[in-house]
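Consider the tokenized backbone below.
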């Protein structure tokens, strides 16, 4: 079951400047930041609220770390803005298999490592009404 909006991914050219915008405008603080070399992003997670499934919802601000990354490619074409949405589940493997059986392309054969040690996969935006969609199982606590 998908039980929360885990995060909304927002692509930006300058992470520090964008973090400052969200802090100064809304009062959101950085909960966690990291570089994900495999995905080619530097990211900041801004926690917005806890959710009823024991998890939380975040804004995920993403700056590309290399020109050939998916986010750099997307920014070059679209400029800054909402890049993807992510749904949280306790079972990313099961959800991915179920969604694949419905004819939606799941981009990874096996989930990869995402923010804060989570396990993630993506659904092709062309099969999801133009929305790049991510599935997330948080690392810990195990309910997320
Ligand atoms: C591409 N397209 C999108 C899109 N990215 N549509 C909506 N939202 C997006 N974010 C569209 C393009 O406009 C194009 O449509 C078509 O999909 C093919 O795109 P492309 O630019 O030719 O690029 P591809 O095919 O090489 O790659 C697209 C694909 C890729 C979705 C497969 O971006 C991908 O693998 N994404 C998943 C990984 C990712 O995005 N990682 C960054 C976040 P037209 O109509 O022009 O043909 S990492 C992250 O978020 C982690 C750290 C985490 O959450 O923990």
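A designed sequence for it:
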């Amino acid at each position: 079951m998908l039980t929360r909006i885990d995060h909304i991914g927002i692509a930006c050219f300058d992470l520090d400047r964008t973090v400052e915008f969200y802090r100064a405008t809304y009062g959101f603080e950085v909960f966690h930041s990291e570089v994900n070399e495999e995905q080619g992003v530097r990211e900041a997670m801004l926690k917005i609220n806890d959710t009823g499934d024991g998890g939380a919802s975040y804004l995920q601000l993403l700056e590309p770390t290399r020109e050939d990354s998916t986010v750099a490619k997307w920014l070059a074409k679209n400029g800054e803005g909402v890049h993807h949405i992510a749904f949280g589940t306790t079972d990313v493997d099961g959800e991915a298999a179920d969604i694949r059986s419905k004819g939606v392309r799941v981009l990874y054969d096996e989930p990869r490592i995402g923010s804060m040690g989570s396990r993630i996969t993506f659904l092709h935006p062309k099969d999801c009404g133009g929305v790049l969609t991510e599935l997330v199982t948080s690392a810990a606590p195990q309910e997320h």
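The domain at 2-137 is CATH 3.10.180.10 (2,3-Dihydroxybiphenyl 1,2-Dioxygenase; domain 1).
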